[in-house]
Amino acid sequence: MKKDFVTLVVAVGLGSLALTGNASADAERGKQVFRKCQACHSLEPGDNKVGPSLHGIMGQPAGHVEDYTYSSAMEQSELVWDDETMGEWLRGPRKLVKGTKMAFPGLRKDEEIEDVIEYIRASSE
User: pTM for this structure?
Assistant: First the structure.
């Protein structure tokens, strides 16, 4: 019984860490990385470009931004944008969602991915 309780406490603690993001991620560095994204995406609410606005996207289901036309693959993906899903997406959108219309090849460096996620999150507050 005690072992099960300890396992539960550890699992809850690790889950909390995942929800709060990476402590070493830096929004200012992420702002620099986001330059690769800003040709197609905005962080302003309702400012859709080639891609949808990313304002407030964290914690939301994929394909939810109003007035943006998504691929059917994205609409049917059942993804929810959290650190893990966004990290996978930024690493390779077409690997995560086959048939997406996003042409971005992806980011390669874990630090850049973590930083841009932190910047997206901070810009939505």
Answer: 0.79
